[in-house]
Amino acid sequence: MIVVPLDKALPDNEIESLVIRSQAEAVIFDKKYKEKMLQLKNSNTNEVNRLICMDDQENKQIENYSDILEKGKALLKAGNTQYQDVKIESKKMAIMLFTSGTTNLPKAVMLSQYNICSNLAAIAQFVKVYPTDTLLSFLPIHHTFECTITFLYGLYNGASVAFCDGLKYIQKNLAEYKVSIFVAVPLVLETMYKKIQKAIEEKGKTKLINIMTKISNGLLKCKIDLRRVFFKQVLDNFGGNLRVVFYGAAPMNKNTIIGYNNLGIRLLQGYGLTETSPVISAETDKETKPGSVGLALENLECKIDNPNEEGIGEIIVKGPNVMLGYYHNEEETQKVLKDGWFYTGDYGYIDEDGFLFVTGRKKDIIVLKNGKNVYPQEIEFLINKIPYVVESLVYQREQSKTDTMLCAKIVYDQDRIKEVLGEKTEKEYQEILWKEIKQMNQTLPNFKHIKKITITKEPLAKTTTQKVKRYEELKMVN
User: Fold this and answer.
1) Tell me: the pLDDT tens digits for 360-419?
2) Are 408 and 378 in contact (CB under 8 A)?
3) Which alpha helices (H) appear in 177-319, and where do they start and end?
4) DSSP character for 338?
5) What is the pTM (predicted TM-score) of this model?
6) Is residue 366 classed as helix, strand or coil in its secondary structure?
7) 396: buried, middle or exposed (CB in 10 Å: 19+, 13-18, 0-12)?
8) Between β-strands 181-184 and 134-137, what pairing exists: parallel, antiparallel or unpaired?
9) Burial environment of residue 221 by CB neighbours within 10 A (0 to 12, 13 to 18, 19 or more)
């Protein structure tokens, strides 16, 4: 069979659209979706002919999951082994995954068991997970990064997987489940680290922590690791077991990476796409380089296509993890699959040590009137390092027929800025942030200077996997 995981947080009309596009014949759902699923089945717009509810209910158009289990047990008892003797066709489509759709209509990615299993086997050579580990599943399970890295890779190694109760319960869940490995996005990790720093400041322990960090780092040079002893009190806030955090989807502040590492928590960055099952590169247990997305997995080829004078070009890959194509979309498939190579749509470079760096999405690049290319994510990363900034969006606006200026929409941390600078008007906060931007501009070439900012305390529009919906945001600012 072919599995089509759907994002339960999508609006009803989008769920219906994906059910139609996937040609799904059966839907398995939670009781709260019962009425919507009945409407879906009876609408005659799709191929759904079977509804299966995970909870017991009494509508005759819907089967109860518990009843199906009982039927299965009866078949096994009667000697029917048809569901045990299934022949796996490993290179045929086994799962259809819809991309996040941050800029346009989600594409239906076709992956095989061979794609996914080859990726799991390659990851196992980079990062070791033990049967004694517990992973916290925080991101939506329909998302390929979460499904592969937390759920499948966790089970592949015999580890346990605990499910998070929600964004505001992360710290509580890390502690109560004694989590040792966490998979997250940078925004969550940055927020957690800011809370750690704030708690240390409030207890007046900043100076002590700095001294202990210097001693700890000195001992590390002699191969003596006492970080988990020195910083036990801080680590106990996360259950005391957290040792590795995998993250991806966006760059991480270098100081945050160093900060976690000083406490004895390793931050390992990876990079990939749904189309590559998903991992292309990752930092390993022994080889890391802050700012990079690690080394390419050993069972695939990764290179830079048509690099410029700085070595930056489109990242392309070839290997067993590359998708079969987009479902019922040959035109888009041919754009990205050429001679066995998958064109990621991401720009980056590979340094002399083989580490891959991602500079931005091809479709997001801003081309100025003078022909210079600007990668907005590169500047956003610098803006986000400002202490009072949560996130930002860099975009272009025509200044004249011959000039384009760069602008930034900045989401500020209302509590943090008030705590440091006191109660002020939003206009005053904007002036303070503008001074910070002007200082940042001095570190950049003239063509990368931000010329105008707007500020807000409202978060940027995001997908359920916390990626910024650039297309939606750009419609609002332009």
Assistant:
1) 877 788 877 766 778 888 899 899 888 889 899 999 887 665 578 899 999 998 888 888
2) no
3) 186-202, 206-221, 227-230, 232-235, 254-263
4) E
5) 0.80
6) strand
7) middle
8) parallel
9) exposed
